[in-house]
Design brief:
The complex is a heterotrimer. Chain A is an alpha/beta fold. Helix content of chain A is 36%, strand content 20%. In chain A, the strands form 4 sheets. Chain A has a 7-stranded mixed beta sheet with strand order 12-10-9-8-6-7-17, with helices on both faces. In chain A, strands 2-1-3-4-5-11 form a 6-stranded parallel beta sheet, with helices on both faces. In chain A, α5 (137-150) packs across α6, α5 runs antiparallel to α10 (306-320) and α7 packs parallel to α8 (224-232). The N and C termini of chain A lie far apart (59 Å). Chain C is globular. Classes of the chains: A alpha/beta, B mainly alpha, C mainly alpha.
């Protein structure tokens, strides 16, 4: 029965994609990472997602790591399509989108280009391009609750690469989560300016700890150094991208993790059923948070108190039933300007949130 | 046998194998004479040598790399077949190779030209990002003009910016005696910081959300691909610049002055050459090449200036300059070879499940072997010109 | 929050002091090694690759044996192996040592990344620090004054090296080979031997610096761990005028400058951090411009150093 379904599936696929030869049996999916696929961070999260989908019957995967956001990624996409017969590619770094994916997608209208993090615009972008991303700031919100409960000094630290919307949203959600249980808490942010710069990250962690910060979290490509520095200095830390509990057994509180295998599995299933972006089977903009299983929260560490667990679990439950709204007016930025007026609720799906350019009240730092 | 005198670096540029170890420049005022080619009839042996030695080095490198991947559980012959397939086997893969070779070729000139003066300048990365940044700024100023005007303005600005960047290095060397290798290394870090600062503040397009970038050059004003291929104009610029540089150095009076200074700066000064002027002009020309590479990256690939301008092309260029023995024409060939190597990086991961670092190991082995082979010129008696 | 736990503006000098000691140590070891190498008349730009190989080897050995000191030693040895390759290559006639250095960066980082894949996840036993802040109850001061023994080793090395160059026969040999190789050869010194030993010893020190990065501070193996520090150390040697003790001051300055950017942000000054982060390079260039002269060779510069004509 299964086999029959598979044959029908691939027939449908061959029909809709009309490149039957390349997809006689298996669907080939190509994954492209900007860094090493074992960086204990962003790229590893995607590579683990790819591993998950590679186990599915009828799916073949190819992957390439350390692909810079230049002509190189265009060549990699073409090679995956021409040489490996990929019918869908997942270039996973934000910088791959414009112009690289847009350029190649026009040349290969039969191939699905699914990009992580971009904003699809039907008026401007080819029909065979789609975008997916997870609302990982929901997990950051919960981490903020736990952090605020655990902190004794009321000072939290956030080490971030660059003041871009994806990062600012994480900082803000973490802060709003923290201040939802302890309104006096502050979050001190340091931007290192680069996605991976271990010495600078360690230096940033050290200066934050010296300023009395006792819970750290971060948004850099590989949080390993920051988690280890926090553990060495005997403070608490919330992880990011993947579960880093094993490198900070004492101080690891919780963390915001990706769950890409769920996302890639859904895509693989849809494509095997013959659905495409062009025929409307696959939406161009796919987003999801805790409820949809795109992201998850690391298991609580030993230092998390029962009160913290209670509040965090309550927030988690509200995320799961869809009743939680993080960005609910009135919200001021840290210069005192109202950014979301009272009475306005911005749901997670609101694209305005993907253009965030401010830090909310309670964050010490500047976006310049 | 191991004198690292600058003069010997320069002398190695000529295809002529020195018949004996070079004496230090001080003792040989007639150094320039050595640059004169030997009688034409006798040249074929050294030409064969110049072909056999690098090919032999690459063969040795392939064997060493084959052993390496074999110890890692891969079939070396399958790996070689894949590398060939990815780099040169089809029109498509050769286009891929050329696209990668273009910026490297221009960057190589940034090192190769000053080497003729005896200066080891490694500032091509800085010159490239400054060229890209300034080309973008200039292009945005005249963005309303016709495409050709925009492109010419960008090219001009990129070349001036890159040229000025290395001109500073040359001026510091000439007027203050600052070591050019170190100053150009520092200028790389400074240039990259300036680029990052500019695209994150002064030149930032607020709509470039998660990858801070400058405002974009409109697509219709950008450089188009060549004909129906996917190769962009960068390769044409690269080849032309290399040929012009070769003619400049080998066929003009100015080039003769450069080579004279490179061979023996004291002799050149005694002969009344304007060493300072030649140094500054040469550095400017050298910097213009990577500056143009930066412009091409913006005008043909990215459409904006951002941190992706800084991706290793500069370092690759330094190596190419040395592997090509500072010969501008040879830079073309070596860049295409390196482009092929880079183009094959992906297939090792996709088809052989080798880690991404494998291609780095391969490059390292190839470069070490070719560099070592430099020392073999003149060692094989079969390639020696018969003394007449 | 009380003043007892937060340092406020005092955090900046404390961070710079701590950063100088923590972040300066790898610069110190690499630049001391490079100083010895350059004194013998060769440049080794490949120390960036040595740093990575050292960091990876130290971490891997420490993970497998549980003994960080074994890792440290292994890192030094691995550095020496790469140093030997560089020594052989850079001393071939017609081979430029800068080019050889860049090839060594690629080769060394390739090997380090290739074999380091398996060691990104595990946690290695770290090198211990010596507590000099026991007198203070303040955790920030205690942390700034927790100093790795490798720092003292580095300090000892530079003073020993100074003495070595000035007062020993072997030091004279190295300087002679670096200044006037022909004269040295006429004296019956093996130029090849002296340079090979100098390059290998320098690479040994750079390997230790790699171990410091992965086993002490930041104390982790990742592929970005070196971040150009090996290249900068080469500039530091010139900054320090080929004077080993000068390398110590230059390294402390660079380490401190590296901590300045994050420290200023942690007290709320947060604009232009790219330029702040580039401040050490701008500073070095300025100092070079102000102190160099084209009238005569720099004091201490080895005459045969290929990179400077």
């Amino acid at each position: 029965m299964k086999k029959l379904a598979k044959i029908i599936g691939s027939l449908a696929l061959a029909f809709t994609l009309s490149c039957g030869a390349a997809v006689a049996e298996d669907v080939t999916m190509g994954f492209i990472y900007v860094g090493a696929k074992d960086d204990y961070g962003y790229n590893q999260a995607h590579a683990e997602g790819k591993e998950g989908v590679a186990k599915m019957p009828g799916v073949k995967t190819v992957e390439e790591a350390q692909v810079p956001e230049t002509n190189d990624v265009q060549e990699t996409m073409r090679n995956m399509i021409d040489q490996d017969g990929a019918v869908v590619v997942f270039p996973t770094s934000f910088g791959y989108f414009d112009p690289h994916i847009l350029k190649v997608a026009k040349k290969y209208p039969k191939v699905q280009f699914l990009h992580c993090g971009g904003l699809y615009d039907a008026a401007k972008h080819p029909a065979n391009v789609g975008s997916y991303f997870g609302y990982i700031d929901e997990a950051q919100y919960i981490a903020g609750i736990v952090a605020a409960h655990t902190s004794k000094t009321g000072k939290l630290g956030f080490i971030a690469a660059k003041p871009i919307p994806q990062v600012l949203r994480n900082i803000n959600s973490f802060t709003l989560g923290a201040r939802s249980v302890k309104p006096t808490v502050t979050v001190q942010v340091i931007f290192t300016g680069d996605w991976a710069m271990p010495v600078k990250e360690a230096e940033a962690a050290t200066s934050l700890i010296d300023q009395g910060v006792d819970v750290l979290t971060c948004h850099v490509d590989s949080p390993k150094v920051i988690v280890q520095t926090a553990e060495k200095r005997g403070i608490y830390v919330c992880g990011y991208h993947a579960n880093q509990a094993s490198i900070a057994p004492k101080g690891y509180l919780t963390g915001a993790e990706w769950n890409w295998s769920a996302v890639y599995g859904q895509y693989a299933k849809a494509i095997k059923e013959g659905k495409t972006l062009e025929n409307g089977g696959i939406p161009h903009l796919v987003r999801g948070g805790l409820k949809e299983g795109f992201v998850k929260v690391s298991a609580y560490g030993p230092a998390v108190s029962d009160a913290a667990k209670k509040d965090a679990d309550a927030a988690l439950a509200k995320f799961m039933d869809g009743s939680m709204v993080i960005y609910k007016g009135e919200i001021k930025d840290n210069t005192g300007k109202v950014v979301i007026p009272a009475g306005t609720e911005l749901k997670q799906q609101d694209p305005v949130l993907e253009k965030m350019d401010y830090l909310v009240e309670g964050v010490i730092g500047s976006t310049k | 046998m191991d004198e690292p005198k600058p003069a010997s670096v320069i002398a190695s540029a000529t295809a002529e194998p020195p018949p004996e170890p070079l004496p230090p420049p001080e003792t040989q005022p007639g150094d320039i004479a050595r640059e004169r080619p030997p009688a034409r009839a006798l040249q074929w042996r050294s030409k064969v040598e110049a072909l056999v030695i690098p090919c032999g080095a690459i063969a040795v490198a392939l064997v060493l790399f084959g052993i390496f991947v074999w110890t890692q559980g891969a079939n070396p012959f399958a790996v070689f077949a894949s590398i060939y397939k990815a780099a040169f086997a089809s029109t498509r893969s050769f286009e891929n190779t050329l696209v990668r070779a273009a910026p490297i070729m221009l960057c190589a000139l940034g090192t190769a030209i000053p080497l003729r003066l005896g200066m080891v300048v490694i500032g091509n990365e800085g010159a490239l990002v400054m060229g890209g940044l300034m080309a973008t700024a200039a292009g945005l100023l005249v963005v309303e003009a016709p495409a050709l005007v925009v492109q010419l303005t960008m090219a001009g600005a990129g070349m001036v910016a890159g040229g000025t960047w290395l001109l500073i290095v040359g001026a510091l060397k000439h007027y203050r005696g600052v070591n050019e290798t170190i100053s150009s290394l520092l200028m790389n870090f400074i240039g990259i910081a300036l680029l990052n600062q500019a695209v994150n503040s002064w030149m930032k397009d607020p709509s470039s959300l998660n990858k801070p970038s400058s405002f974009p050059i409109p697509e219709e004003k950008m450089l188009t691909p060549l004909g129906t291929t996917d190769v962009h104009w960068g390769i044409v610029f690269g080849v032309v610049f290399c040929i012009v540089a070769y003619i400049l150095i080998h066929k003009t009076t100015f080039g003769f002055q450069i080579r004279t200074i490179g061979a023996n700066i004291r002799a050149a000064q005694l002969a009344g050459l304007a060493v300072g002027k030649v140094t500054l002009v040469t550095c400017f020309i050298a910097g213009a090449a990577p500056g143009l590479a930066g412009m091409v990256e913006v005008a043909a690939v990215h459409g904006v200036a951002n941190e992706s301008l800084n991706v290793w092309y500069g370092n690759a260029g330094i190596l190419v300059a040395f592997l090509a023995r500072q010969n501008a024409l040879a830079c073309i060939v070596v860049s295409v070879m390196l482009g092929g190597l880079l183009a094959s990086g992906g297939i090792l991961q996709r088809s052989h499940q080798l880690p991404d670092a494998t291609i780095l190991v391969f490059q390292g082995i190839v470069f070490l072997c070719i560099l070592y082979s430099e020392s073999l010129y003149g060692k094989f008696s079969i390639f020696q010109e018969k003394k007449s | 929050m009380t003043d007892a736990e937060s340092l406020g503006w005092w955090g900046v000098p404390i961070a710079v002091l701590g950063g100088a000691l923590r972040g300066g140590t790898p610069f110190l070891l690499v630049s001391a090694g490079e100083c010895l190498t350059e004194k013998s008349g060769k440049t080794n730009l490949g120390l960036e690759g040595v740093l990575l190989i050292g960091a990876m080897t130290a971490y891997a050995v420490s993970v497998n044996t549980g003994n960080p000191w074994a890792g440290l030693l292994a890192a030094g040895m691995a550095g020496m192996v790469l140093g030997f390759i560089h020594a052989v290559l850079a001393q071939q006639p017609k081979v430029n040592d800068i080019a050889a250095g860049i090839a060594m960066i690629i080769f060394g980082s390739g090997l380090a990344f290739f074999f380091g894949k398996a060691y990104i996840q595990p946690v290695a036993e770290q090198l211990p620090g010596i507590e000099f802040g026991w007198w203070s109850s303040h955790p920030a001061i205690r942390s700034a004054l927790r100093i790795c023994p490798l720092f003292f080793f580095g300090v000892a090395v530079v003073f020993l090296m100074q003495w070595f160059f000035e007062s020993t026969r072997w030091g004279l040999f190295v300087r002679a080979v670096g200044d006037k190789p022909d004269a040295a050869r006429a004296m019956g010194i093996s130029v090849w031997g002296v340079r090979t030993c100098s390059i290998m010893a320098g690479s040994f020190l750079a390997g230790l610096a790699g171990a410091y990065l992965s086993l002490y501070y930041p104390g982790s193996w990742t592929e970005k761990i070196s971040g150009g520090q090996g290249m900068i150390a080469v500039a530091l040697v010139i900054f320090a005028r080929w004077n080993p003790v000068g390398c110590l001051w230059a390294s402390l300055l660079f380490g401190g400058a590296q901590a300045l950017g994050p420290a200023l942000q942690s007290v709320g000054i947060s604009s232009y951090y790219y330029l702040f982060n580039a401040s050490p390079y701008i500073l070095t260039l300025l100092v070079m411009v102000l102190t160099c002269t084209n009238k005569k060779q720099l004091a201490g510069q080895p005459g045969a150093l290929g990179a400077s004509s």
